[in-house]
Amino acid sequence: SRTHHYDFFIRETNVTRLCHEKAVLAVNGQFPGPTINARKGDVVVVNVYNQGHKNITIHWHGVDQPRNPWFDGPEYITQCPIAPGSNFTYRIIFSGEEGTLWWHAHSDFDRATVHGAIVVHPKLGSSFPYPKPHKEIPVILGEWWNVDVEKLLEETKRTGGDFNISDANTINGQPGDLFPCSKDGTFRVPVERGKTYLLRVINAGLSNDMFFAVAGHTLTVVGTDGYYLKPFTTGHVMISSGQTMDLLLHAINVSANRYYMAARTFQTNTELTVNNTTATAILEYTDAPPLTAGSPEPPVLPAVDDLAAATAYTAALRSLATVDVPTHVDEHMVVTISVNVLPCKPSNGDTSSCEGPINGTRFAASLNNVSFVASPTGVDILDAYYHSIHGVYTSDFPNRPPVAFNFTEPEPATELWYTDRGRRVKVVEYGAVVEVVFQDTAILGAEPHPMHLHGFSFYVVGRGFGNFDEGKDPATYNLVDPPYQNTVSVPTGGWAAIRFRATNPGVWFMHCHFDRHTVWGMDTVFIVKNGKTPDAQMLPRPPTMPKC
Ligand code: C2O
Ligand code: CU
């Protein structure tokens, strides 16, 4: 294995989109940021210089980082932030991942513009489990706001009310031809007829799941979240916030020279205001006769709320090989996912204008009715655990079985809308097999939630609609070839069951990948204890960790 070095200079960079110029945080002046390239089993060292005006951290999304929580990145969970004017060197250890992952800021809403692709190739001497593509193309789906994301965060925390939706979805940072002042920047993919291209698609969006398609072409899905899948061919893809999809595109079309690839929001909660704009890029045959006037063909995308299309796509994901799913479960938990209300608490710096749906409340979100509050104590959770500092968190997640009610009934009683503030974590023994069943609820509207776990990939053994039934649903689990992911889309008004073996000691964040839900508290932490042997224990604390 090799070690690769990167320098990330984070600073404000002026960017113009939708006819507005604004300063955004970006890495090395690039938006999206640079791609990190590695091979399976390599180590990547990234020296991050914070030349911006605010605290920041970087997370390596989907990299398990065995025994190495120190460099995982979430602010106040595994580290104190990198202060303006200082730097911090991350050491990223790749183990089982092979495919597409990504990196992003893990502080406030900074990841809106601070993100980029991670491409993990097979080890030297081994190859993809499919014919080698002619070219590989990172395709990062994202969102653009004309307002400053710091403003957006403030608003999200203060009112928690109407989320300020993005002004455009983007492909590689560009809204594309359908938006004003955007034509010149539209991302273009030159292709040659007869060749095959690997699209490494990443959904970096802050608040949107997305459908993606290419006009005139089908896509062969070969991987997700850094692991291979049984190939299947589809007209469109649904990709949750945080997920990646590896797609083969065969450039074999002859009817036109140019085709749009397009991305649009998937959101089932029709009571929410959604960004239903379409981002486009252009697939351009370079060996075709000179382009004639006229627009490229648009692709057919499912409607914004097409739950059936999203469900069918997600259900088709299967691991390439038969996998070793643990059959005995040591820790089983059902965790409800809700959007909630909290009483306003101005004394807490929660200077709410209290625009929640019930007087004197603001919006919140929860896992099992606890709204996780970030550590205000100046100690991150990893340090608190490592140095046995008390009072930073409590080890009682989930602190009770989920409040029993019909989770998916349209109008749950208003008493059920309330949640508690806490910093409750789950501590598990090294090697324990953990099964989490995420149960969406209809409190303040059912919607899909992309649940993401740090430190582990997990098998998605089951998904279903309605209330999870302990008696019946486990019999439907796929224990043969379930997909291995780090982010699972919990279906609207339904549930998803995941399983993983806790063989990575450390402190690992778990949260909804919609940033508004993350800051509203739809989060918890898994602490995995050290095992007995030295190779089952956390690496020693690096002396370079930033101070709070
Ligand atoms: Cu992609 Cu905790 O994040
Ligand atoms: Cu969510």
TrEMBL record:
Catalysis performed (reactions): 4 hydroquinone + O2 = 4 benzosemiquinone + 2 H2O
Q: Which cofactor does it need?
A: Cu cation
Co-factor remark? Binds 4 Cu cations per monomer.
Q: What is its EC number?
A: 1.10.3.2
Name the Gene Ontology molecular function terms of this record: copper ion binding; hydroquinone:oxygen oxidoreductase activity
Q: Name one GO biological process term.
A: lignin catabolic process
**What Pfam families does the record tag this protein with?**
Cu-oxidase (PF00394), Cu-oxidase_2 (PF07731), Cu-oxidase_3 (PF07732)
**Broad class of enzyme this protein falls into:** oxidoreductase
Is-annotated flag, keyword Nucleotide-binding? no
Family to which this protein belongs:
Belongs to the multicopper oxidase family.
Function field: Lignin degradation and detoxification of lignin-derived products.
Recorded hits in PANTHER family, A to Z, give: LACCASE-14, MULTI-COPPER OXIDASE
Name the chain's protein.
Laccase
User: From what organism does this protein derive?
Assistant: Digitaria exilis
